[in-house]
Every structure is written in structure tokens, then in C-alpha cells.
Design a protein that fits this description.
single chain, Rossmann fold, 37% helix, globular
Amino acid sequence: MRVLFVHQNFPAQYRHVAPALARRRGVQVVGLGENPGEALPGVQHVRYKAPPEGSREIHRYVRRFEAAVFRGQQVARAALALKERGFVPDLVCCHPGWGEGLYLRDVWPEARLLYYFEFYYRAAGADVGFEPPGPVPIDDACRVRTMNATHLLSLEQADWGQTPTRWQASRFPDWARARLSVVHEGVDTAAIRRQPEARFTLPDGRVLGPDDEVVTFVARGLEPYRGFHVFMRALPEIMARRPRAQVVVVGGDEPHYGAKPPEGGTWREVMLAELGERLDRARLHFTGKVPHARLLSLLSLSSAHVYLTYPFVLSWSVIEAMACGCLVIGSRTPPIEEVIEHGRNGLLVDFFSSAELAGAVARALAEPAAMAPLRRAARRTAEERFDLHRVCLPRQLALLDAVAAGRRPAFSDAA
């Protein structure tokens, strides 16, 4: 069997399943992406050329779709080159969100296509219009509807779809959910666990250890989508009530989902200017992005881990924090509510209430013994629902096998 994985940042979501397939006898696995990624054992990595820039003169509703068409064209050309060299896949697994999957059916009409559908955009009930709450202007609603053009074309040609959470599945139209399986990529809970003797070196050279009181916040981009502004506004109260607390913020300045500040600069700069001397800057540490091993060391030291998000895609980092036995204080928003139950395996607060967040963090720091059962329950949730080797990888492989064989998978979005 021949299997092709397509993702602009390959391996991305396919980091575990691609080499697992490659370990099977008689299976050839190729990964196709734009950017050079992590080398995986047994997987041939092929790159496609970066797509050209689109025109700024085009209607703003379709700029994103034009970019997807350019990317899909480049992927199709790379796919044709693979075909000319004799590679004809039985199964193609693709994340079509940026357009990679638009024309793969035209290159390989007989291949089975399994697409990873991450998010379907709507003008109500999710990220759009969440902040500030209220009706979305008709111009924005039309733009958001048009953003789904790439997904709709991809849904039409895919044999089956995959998405990581039930809530993300619920965003898709009913007819699409009928061919959509909820399968998370999983977390290696044997490797990702609390490290009793962990240490973490701060940017100023100080070293945090198990005896320190540490508040953690992790996001790829420090931006409103992940509640960075709400978290920052809670810090003056947290720092006042917990004079020993060290606050460590991991993430880059470039937004990954939302817009840059309208006044320019970065959200970090905006929030630091807003809060000024109310913050004890000696106890607030911005690390930027850090290697995964360092992140796990930090999570192992976390006394309270804050994870806030608009109703949007769920970050891998929150599952990893739970696997590390962190006391997660999350926002009462989907899909967090799908994995954290308030008072059982974590704490939930109103996304918009910095005061409620500050109170929850201060309480967690003041009552570590009372929080211990929640930490243990968080770890159990990660093991029982998201363990890579016992739960998620077997389900992914079963899904791929079913689609490759032309069978209807045994589980769907109701699983």
C-alpha cells in the first residue's frame, strides 16, 4: 500500500500516524509539505514550491480563497511530479485548510481521500462575534461564509473526514458530519508526564524548581484568541495576593489566528503599556517560543496553568498540561468544556472576567492540597481519552485502514 500525507507544515498532525504506517511491511509513506519539517523514520519527505502572492486588488471576500487556489495548484504540480515518477497512492491524507487538497482528486481519481477538517467558519456561535459580543455586521458575515469555499470543495471530493473534537465536528453542516470521524491525534502520556526534579531557566538566568510558586500561560501566539489580554489584566491582582508567585508566559508575539493590534505593535506591548506599574515586572517572564522539552519541564513546575480561548480549535498544549498533572484553569468556552469539568479535573472561569480568573488562580496557589485531586483527575483524563498509544493512534490507524479499503469507519462524530 502507498500512502501520501499532505500538510504545508508536515508532519504536523501526522507526526505519529505517518511513521506508524511506515513500520508496516509493504507500506510506502510519503509526506508532502511546503516547509522543511521533522524527519520521520521510514517516511520520504517531499516539498512543494511556495505559492505566489495573491492580488490585493481582488475582492476581500475571496483573497483567502485565491491564496488557497495558488497553494492547491502548487500541490497539484508536485503531485503530478510524483505521479510521473511512478508514485500512485492508494490513500491520501490531507489537511485541506490552506488549499492543499483542492485538486488531488484530479491528479489521482482512483485514490481514497481522507481529509483532516479542523474548523468550519460561521458568523455566529464560535469565534466570530465572540469578542466584543454582539451581532456581526453583514459585510463580515458574508466574508466569513465565503471563507468556507475551500472546505466545501474539499468536502465534496473527500471520501471521509477527520476532526479532533466533537465540538469542532458540530460546526460542520449536517450532511458533512455524516462522513466525519472525531479522532484526536493524541498525546504520548508515557513521555509527557510530571517530572519531579524539573528545573526551568528563566530569560534572566534565574532557575525555577519544585519549591517555587509558578503560574504558567502557553500559546503559540500571545493574542486575544487565546485570552492573553484577559490573563494579563488578571496579573496585578494575582501578584498582589501571591507575593511569591513567578509568572511564566510562553509564546510568540506574532498572532496566529486573530489580527494585530489596530494601534500597531504587538499585543504583549499593548498590555504592558496598559498595565504599566501595576505589574511586578521582576516576577513576569516572557520566554518566547521554547523547545518542547523545555516546555514540559516548565509544565512540570506549574502551580496553576491558565488556558483561555475563544470558541475555536483546541490547542495540543492544554492536553499536554493535563498529562503533566497541571491544575488547569480554563475559560468556560467550547471546546475546553469538552475536556475539563469544573471542580472535577480542573477549574473553569468566565472568559471575559479577569477578576474571576485572578480569584481562581490565587485560590489554586493558596490551597495546593485541595487542588491535588483535580490534578490527578486531569492526568487520568489525558490517559483515558487522549493517550497516543492506547487510544488515539489505534483509532487513527483503524480510520485510515477503513477509508483505504472503501469501508465506512466504525465511528463518526457521535463517537
